[in-house]
Amino acid sequence: MARLLEEPALRAADGAELPAELGECSELEYLDVGHNIFDGELPSAIGQCHALRSLVASGNRLSGLLPDCWASSGKGRPLNRVELAANQLKGPVPMSLL
Q1: Which pLDDT does position 26 carry in this prediction?
Q2: Which of 56, 2, 46 is nearest to 23 (CA)?
Q3: Are 76 and 52 in contact (CB under 8 A)?
Q4: Which H, E and C letters describe the chain, residue by residue?
Q5: What pLDDT, on the 0 to 100 scale, is given for residue 1?
């Protein structure tokens, strides 16, 4: 059974950051927090979600560099959908996301 976490289960209050505890969701396959008002960086702990296949976080106020933690390392499946448009992210796109 697919594990799904999307709004409104996880909705941002003004100025809220994505919680690092997302990394504890080891069976999480789909994370959709698009079009909220999350601030801050994408927590590197998301890389601990080895089952994560789809990350939608477009339309927030996320900033900073993309963590290079989503490469398939034999644990789980690689991300096959990443939507991060309309944020304030900077720096190179990790090779693992190309």
Answers
A1: 86
A2: 46
A3: yes
A4: CCCEEECCCCCCCCCCECCHHHHHCCCCCEEECCCCCCEECCCHHHHHCCCCCEEECCCCEEEEECCCCCCCCCCCCCCCEEECCCCEEECCCCHHHC
A5: 39
- One-letter amino acid for residue 37 of the chain: I
- Does pTM surpass 0.70? yes
Residue type, 92: P
The C-alpha angle 92, 97, 98, rounded to 5 degrees, equals 85
Which residue type occupies 20? A
Per the listing, tokens 């919680």 go with: 19
List of residues 6+ apart from 97 with CB closer than 8 A: 66, 70, 79, 82
Separation CA 68–CA 47 (nearest Å) = 8
User: Residue 66: which of 33, 86, 31, 92 has the closest Cα?
Assistant: 92
